[in-house]
Amino acid sequence: MSLKTQYILDALHKLFKGNTKELHKPFFAGNEKKYLEDCINSSYVSYVGKYVQEFEQSLCKFTGCKRAIVFSNGTSALQIALIAAGIKAKHEVLLPSLTFVATANAISHAGAIPHFIDSREYDLGIDPDALESWLRYSTIKKNGECINKKTNRVIKAVVPMHTFGHPSSMEEIIKISNDYNLLVIEDAAEAIGSFYKGVHVGNFGIAGVLSFNGNKTITTGGGGAIITNDLLLADTARHISTTAKIPHQWEFIHDQVGYNLRMPNINAAVGCAQLEQIKSILENKRLLFDKYENAFKGIEGIKVIKEPSNCSSNYWLQGIIIDKNLAYLRDEILEETNKVGISSRPIWRPLHLLKPYLNCPAAPLPQAKDLYSRIINLPSGVDVL
Amino acid sequence: MSLKTQYILDALHKLFKGNTKELHKPFFAGNEKKYLEDCINSSYVSYVGKYVQEFEQSLCKFTGCKRAIVFSNGTSALQIALIAAGIKAKHEVLLPSLTFVATANAISHAGAIPHFIDSREYDLGIDPDALESWLRYSTIKKNGECINKKTNRVIKAVVPMHTFGHPSSMEEIIKISNDYNLLVIEDAAEAIGSFYKGVHVGNFGIAGVLSFNGNKTITTGGGGAIITNDLLLADTARHISTTAKIPHQWEFIHDQVGYNLRMPNINAAVGCAQLEQIKSILENKRLLFDKYENAFKGIEGIKVIKEPSNCSSNYWLQGIIIDKNLAYLRDEILEETNKVGISSRPIWRPLHLLKPYLNCPAAPLPQAKDLYSRIINLPSGVDVL
């Protein structure tokens, strides 16, 4: 083992007092059991129930969005957000290559084609300069639409993803998107509790999407939400994800191909209890960042990933980024930490390198590949401290 | 109000002792709360957890299938079953027009085109004679494939649906499907606990799909399952519904466009508790059928819907079928029963009459339209007795 890896291991052992640590562990210290018991007592466990309504209202209040619609998972929420925003088959949708595969899957499920953009080290999100220069170089405007010169397809939207909870540069991305007539749908799956210049993420585009998977800041078992200030988009999303049924006293009339993707009441019940505790969860995660920063401060070439300026990140997933000349140590660090029960993982393999997305349109992606070789995530749950 | 409607109302009032009744109400008298509490205590609430495994194993045991994979809902389970069975974009898939819209939606989500077949009064499922004569008239065989002569597309599969839990005529449907090289995927969303000649439905085709929606015989809040005896299909379904991730110690490698549609552990926990009680639930539903039959026996022109011979139905949804010459009374009966708090509804509007499916290929559908005008569902939950 290299000396550098040994230093890292020593720092982690000291921080965790020799204990093993998982990457994520959900934290339940509130009304979860009480609300679940109430669901069973009331017999409201399915798509209709007071916790669904309460969770949607609480999400609006917490994020400052006008409307929230909850789903069985974040991928489905993003798929429906795209469809409700008007994304159609064969549209291209821009997204970072450096994201979890669900972002591209949701675009594919909506019938559209992922088109990859580079990320940058500063906030681990879409690089606004790379986005702007790629659009200038590779597209033309025709009838107000942004056309990919190579494929002749309409580029309709951009989906920034707030990596590990750190907000992407929304001001720049929104400006460029307006210039090129692109819709913005924020993949905020990792970012509940993250604010960009004081505004909760998901409020910048036409819609944002949250996830409540078991590994997220708060969980509903499995779940997701669309948050939006666009009332028409909200109505459309709710309608098509509830089998597109037209209200009628008894007849079953459905006016388009619909989906059945809503969040059940029992999952929303857990969500209500979790959201009540989010402030202390977020405080804990900021504290954990401080502890990591303190633990690694003497080790040259290792930097703990920090929120961008003017932002308040939820610090969903903690991580370090190693200097380029130490990138060769990534796998050794992963191996040695996991060997002693301190869970770690690299960032996702950039999507343009995965078999299903190899042939998708893509801008040059040097930074995505570089960042992939240098980022390591570390235990991030409330149980770590 | 007509005299006939008055007789029906009187019979229902007498049966329910003047109480109001919902159409469906889930029944929780077992370990639901205990297992949910265990999930929260263990912190396993998401896609990994012992209840997911236990529920899948219990479903195998109960249905006699080799494998079960649980999903966030039945529509998604059917979509994945179709994809895993090899249904591709532009394939046509046969289904009854007289089914809930989810059957056609799942086929559409798989990229295929619904192709409607008539149903019959005997079992409310696909009419085998209509199926056979339509295939003989409208298709040709080319390279072993069944080709729709009019559209030139491959007809790849048939999806029988077991209406209200009553098994379709699987022996005849399987024979015809074999003759025409069609795969059979059973939509058994309504039919957990239903047996055709002693074998649980879902065992006749290459796969079957169950639903655990809140209105079903047993519920998980929202949920569904694929049951199958085809191990390759089971592996494929599990893989693509879990983001198609290749096992690796830490790398995120996905080998195809995947989905995130698995059932969370908290929903499976409710499912485990529910499945423990299914015998008594099924007994209660058979008893309710007897009571309805007894209640209506003096009323001419009204028949309580009964399981086909050689079958044991779960009697998920109870209903009556009125004689053709009384069809004009359907809406009056619906109105008067709902007015006094006895929930009732017609069968689904046949799908070929709905806007999204108006232009799909279809056989002649006289029986579907006729049955639609004469079937009324009545309160069916365990709470009714």
Indicate the CATH topology of the largest domain in chain A.
Answer: Aspartate Aminotransferase, domain 2
CATH level-four homologous superfamily name of the largest domain in chain A? Type I PLP-dependent aspartate aminotransferase-like (Major domain)
Determine the strand fraction of chain A and express it as a percent band.
15-25%
In CATH, the architecture of the largest domain in chain A is: 3-Layer(aba) Sandwich
Overall description:
The structure is a homodimer of 385-residue chains. Chain A folds into two domains: 3-25 and 278-384, Aspartate Aminotransferase, domain 1; 32-276, Type I PLP-dependent aspartate aminotransferase-like (Major domain) (Aspartate Aminotransferase, domain 2, 3-Layer(aba) Sandwich). Chain A is 35% helix and 16% strand. Chain A has twelve helices and 16 strands. The longest helix of chain A has 19 residues, at 278-296. The model of chain A has no long low-confidence stretch (mean pLDDT 97). The interface between A and B is large, with 67 and 67 residues.
Quick structural summary:
The structure is a homodimer of 385-residue chains. The first copy, chain A, has twelve helices and 16 strands. With 385 residues, the first copy, chain A, is α+β, with helices and mostly antiparallel strands.
List the helices and strands and how they pair.
The structure is a homodimer of 385-residue chains.
Chain A: H1 3-15, H2 32-42, H3 50-63, E1 67-71, H4 74-84, E2 92-96, H5 102-109, E3 113-117, H6 128-138, E4 139-142, E5 145-148, E6 154-158, H7 170-179, E7 183-187, E8 195-196, E9 199-200, E10 207-211, E11 224-228, H8 231-240, H9 265-276, H10 278-296, E12 302-304, E13 311-312, E14 318-322, H11 330-339, E15 345-346, H12 366-372, E16 375-378
Parallel strand pairs in A: 2-3, 2-6, 6-7, 7-10
Antiparallel strand pairs in A: 1-11, 4-5, 5-6, 8-9, 8-13, 10-11, 12-14, 14-16, 15-16
